[in-house]
Each structure stands twice: as structure tokens, then as C-alpha cells.
Amino acid sequence: MKTNLCLLYGGKSAEHEVSLQTAKAVIQALDTNKFSIYPIFISKEGNWVKGSELIGPVSDIKSLEFKKEGQEISPNALTTSFTQTDDRNMDVVFPLLHGPNGEDGTVQGMLELLNIPYVGNGVLASSAGMDKVIMKNLFAQAGLAQVKYVSFVRSSWEALPEQAYEQVETEIGYPCFVKPANLGSSVGISKCENRTELMEAFTEAFQYDRKIIIEEGVEAREIEVGVLGNDLPECSIAGEIVPKKEFYDYHAKYIEGDTELIIPAEISSEKYAEVKELAIRAFKALDCSGLVRADFFMTKEGKILINEINTMPGFTPVSMFPLLWKHSGLEYPELVERLIQLAIERHNEKQQIIHTF
User: Fold this and answer.
1) What are the tens digits of pLDDT across the range 4-15?
2) How far is CA 296 from each of CA 73, 147, 181, rounded to the nearest angstrom?
3) CA separation (Å) from 130 to 181, 198, 208, 345?
4) What pLDDT, on a 0 to 100 scale, did the predictor assign at position 12?
5) How far apart are CA 54 and CA 2, in angstroms?
6) CA 148 to CA 33: how far, in whole Å?
7) Does residue 18 lie within any of the structural domains?
8) Which of 24, 60, 198, 237 would bridge 264 by S-S if both were Cys, CB 3.0 to 4.6 A apart?
9) CA dihedral 319, 322, 327, 332 (to 10 degrees)
10) What is the DSSP string of 269-286?
């Protein structure tokens, strides 16, 4: 019997289009002899629109943007007669959502309430991994070395903007990076070399979130590793990102392709062992499951600093996370199936928990 698999994609997020690209790639990788694939498109307004069962790859992302009137559904439909071939519920849901309202624990919490297996990280890891401030606070608690950082909420900045700028200059200095706290894919990030750029960067970042983080700029190589698993996570080989621009922004990632990925990264076996150990510590510090891409800085002196983890990293075949696993011997279709297996395994373990006393 085939597995009933629901794909959630789109979403009310600045990374809506990135999610569509991810969905297209996963659909092309899935074996329709093993899976009955049911797509749900989440519009930018947050409406859920059900599509027909997919029987093969799609030609372009536009075909995944369902707009049929009357096809909107409630998330509760996942627990009712959703399929067209039988009356079984969804066996597993794959949230192919990046950014807020998808990668941040909101959808994960809904799926927990519905008691449906889902791919990827749970509520805590998703929400903590999305909020860069909370994530870095947890890393600090776990004793992981990282760059200096400060954060602000919009109201405090609007009340005392000069004080905020002075705090950054005193505690962080230039160059520094200003980022929305709860957004991925390098959206809204600015590099600042002076007060004028800092003021502009605050305004830019606060367009995307009510909280921002300012990080120390360091001269370092950017090393990344993929982590896969539940309680016994494994690491891929390491890769390196070499931006051709000042830093790895949204345009470099998704539009211009203006960056170089080096796999495997040219680092010593000792440094790779250190990166692996730190990646697994970070994975466990946030109680992650399924998948994580862990990003590090390696300074000229060879010091390894954790930058962040991404609980739903870019997931097209040319994205860093799948490429790292491909070079580690796990092809993209196998990676997708492995993640589905991990989701079911984790769900089955949770069913052993008793809820009466």
C-alpha cells in the first residue's frame, strides 16, 4: 500500500517563492509507485487550497499555485477523508515551508494537535531556530562559541534610536550585520560600516520583523554541514560558501547565483571533526529532529564559531543541504525518503507516551 503524503508549500512569508521551488523539486524526486502525493498550496494571504493528487512531476511552479474558488480547506481536512482513492487520513505531512508561518513552529504545532506525522523539526526547535536571538541565547547556554551580538525590538528603537545606535557601536562596533530576528534566506540583511548605514539598516530590518539582531562582522570562511537524524544525528561532509559579493544575501542565493559552493570544504580532518561535534551539540541544544543545516565561521586563526542553524534549509537539488548529502553518498530522492522515514519513526515513538495518570 502506498504512503499518503501531503505536501504543504507556499505560505504567508517573504520566502513564499522559495517554498514553491522546493515543492517542485521534491515532487520531481518522489516515487509515485511508493507515494500518493497530495499538494496543498498556502497563499500569501494564508488560505489553504487543495490540489488534485499528483501523478508525476510538474512543469513549473505556477502550476502549483492553485486558485480555484471553493477549493479552500481547513487544516482539519488532513484528519478527514482527504484522499481520492480511499478513506485513510494522511500518513505523513511534509511542510516545505521556509520562514515565518511555516518554519517557525506554527504549522508544527497544528500538526502536533492533529497528531499527524510530519517531516522535520518539532515546535520547540522550529521556533527557537527561527528566532536568531533565542537561538544564540541557547547556544551561549550550551557553551558554543559565537560572534558578539545585541538585539532590539521595534518599540525600544523607536523610543530611543540614538541610544540603540550607540549601544551597537560600543558593544559590537563596525563592521556589523543587521538582520531581522525571524527570517531566513538572508532577507532584510545589511552590512554596516558607519552610523549612516546602521540607521538605514535598522529601518530596513524592522520592515520584516518586530525584533532585530546585530552581529559582529568577522573576517572568516563560511563552513556548513548537514545534520540528519532524530536522537542519533549524523553529519554530512563539510562545504564552504564563497560569496562573490560582500556577503551571501538573498539575490546571491536565489536570483544571481553569484556565489561559489566548495564541496568538500578544504579544511583539515581535525577541523572537520570539530565542526561535526559542534553541529551535533547545536542540534541537541535545540532538541532538533529530522534535518538541520549548521553554519559556522572559521577565522584566520582557525577558531570555529557557530553562526546559526537552519531547521528547514534550502531544499532544491542545487541547495547546499542536499548537495552536502549528495557528496556524502545520499542522492536527493533517497534524502527525501529518509526524511519521511525519520518523521514516521519520531511520530511512532511519541505514541508511546501516556496521557493519563
Assistant:
1) 999 999 998 878
2) 41, 10, 18
3) 8, 23, 13, 24
4) 87
5) 13
6) 50
7) yes
8) 237
9) -120
10) HHHHHHHHHHHHHHHHHT
- Asked whether residue 154 falls in the same domain as residue 247, the answer is no
**Mean pLDDT score of the chain, rounded to an integer?**
91
H helix runs in the chain, sequence order: 16-29, 106-114, 123-130, 132-141, 154-159, 161-171, 195-205, 250, 269-285, 320-327, 332-350
Shared domain check, 163 and 245:
no
511552479: which residue's cell? 61
The domain of 202 spans 148-216
Tally of structural domains, the chain: 3
Q: For residues 95 and 158, state if they share a domain.
A: no
Grid cell at residue 178: 543587521
> Helix 332-350 and helix 320-327: axis angle, to 10°?
100
What's the rounded mean pLDDT across residues 231-247? Answer: 88
Q: For the chain, how many residues are written?
A: 357
Instruction: Please report whether residue 109 resides in a domain.
Output: yes
Amino acid at 78: L
pLDDT at position 78 is 79
300 CB-near residues (< 8 Å, 6+ apart)? 219, 220
Is 82 a domain residue?
yes
Residues 241 and 334 in one domain: yes
This prediction has a pTM of 0.89
- Taking the C-alpha atoms of residue 209 and residue 212, their distance in angstroms, rounded to an integer, is 7
Cβ atoms 6, 111 nearer than 8 A: no
Q: Does residue 131 have a pLDDT over 80?
A: yes
What pLDDT sits at residue 59?
Answer: 86
Taking residues 85-108, report their average pLDDT. Answer: 85
